[in-house]
Amino acid sequence: MSTFDDYLHAATRENTRQSYQAALRHFEVEWGGLLPASPDRVARYVAEYGSVLSISTLRQRLAALAAWHQEHGFADPTKSPVVRKVLRGVQAVHPAEQRRAAPLQIEQLAQVDSHLADAIDRARATGNRPAMLRHLRDRALLLLGFWRGFRGDELSRLRVEHIRVAPGERMECYLPRTKTDRHLTGQTFRTPQLTRMCPVNAYLDWVGAADLQDGPVFRRVDRWGNLGDDALNVDSLLPLLRRVLATNGVLAAELYSTHSLRRGFASWATANGWDLKTLMEHVGWKSAQSAMRYIDLDDPFNQRRIEQILRQ
Questions:
Q1: If we measure between CA atoms, which residue out of 264, 276, 29 comes closest to residue 148?
Q2: Who has the most CB within 10 Å: 52, 74, 181, 249?
């Protein structure tokens, strides 16, 4: 590719590019649509899959179609009244509660951390380097994902050369781009060193044992203890996390996802008195609406508040 093409390619996140390509392929190949598309054809596409696809998936398909038309200089058919009206009709006829991953509780985090620490000690004592490396990696990923509130794609994109550690104080993780970074300025996330379940110590233990000087932080470890050169694919983090949770005593591990770490931290922080502004700054949310989707209140039915009033 030319430098011009390289810059165009870099302007869109890779997972966004892949999802858009899949959406366009579905519209053209599986449904038989033509590009550029008319508003009526797009509306009929939405109507045909309204009972099959979730509303979030339909919105993603429309976003892909909108991006294609804008990129190629055509009018965006997804903004037409008929498409919006059909989409509202799908929502009215097929209402669905948004599914959310179960939050990982602090007690569960402590349990898994303790089990992983014991497994690391056993692997070291028996000279099982492959197992030791996997446990060290999993522990660092779990603790950093929880205390920093990272998304799965953010964990997969962490690089050693972008992380700075101040021993006894904190670590700073720089990400050149994030989901909410519309201006592509990058963002630095700070994580304090803790007295227990420490993400900083877990990170240092992992990169030290793996002798990582640069490149992706979280990588594949094969059966012989060899590390892959590439980062763990974001799609592989879900089965990895569920395996770690199930192996270390967490029941119904299939209910958890990488979002469980983010939701778990947000709920823990809220229950311990963090105000919304502080939580948003720590995790990196740009809107209160985004933050509230991750918070589980410790008194969800307001039982304590109601009982206090009744006793007055």
A1: 264
A2: 181
Q: What contacts 263, CB < 8 A, 6 or more positions away?
A: 100, 101, 102, 103, 104, 294, 295, 296
Angle made by CA atoms 238, 271, 105, in degrees to the nearest 5:
30
SS3 192: strand
Residue with tokens 């206090």: 308
Whole-number Å distance between alpha carbons of 221 and 201: 20
Could you tell me if 142 and 113 are in contact, meaning their C-beta atoms sit under 8 angstroms apart?
A: yes
Distance of CA 228 to the CA centre of its chain: 22
- Output 289 or 114, whichever has higher pLDDT: 114
Q: Which of 264, 246, 266 is nearest to 254 (CA)?
A: 246
Evaluate if residue 161 carries a pLDDT over 80.
Answer: yes
Q: Which CATH class is domain 106-292?
A: mainly alpha
Quickly tell me which residue has 């339909």 as its tokens.
58
pLDDT at 222 over 90: yes
Where are the chain's structural domains?
Answer: 3-93, 106-292
pTM value? 0.73
Q: How far apart are CA 245 and CA 136, in angstroms?
A: 14
Query: Token pair 């000690």 is at which residue?
Result: 121
Phi/psi of residue 157, nearest 5 degrees:
-100, 0
**Within its chain, how far is the Cα of 244 from the centroid?**
17
**Confidence class of residue 272 from pLDDT cuts 50, 70 and 90?**
confident
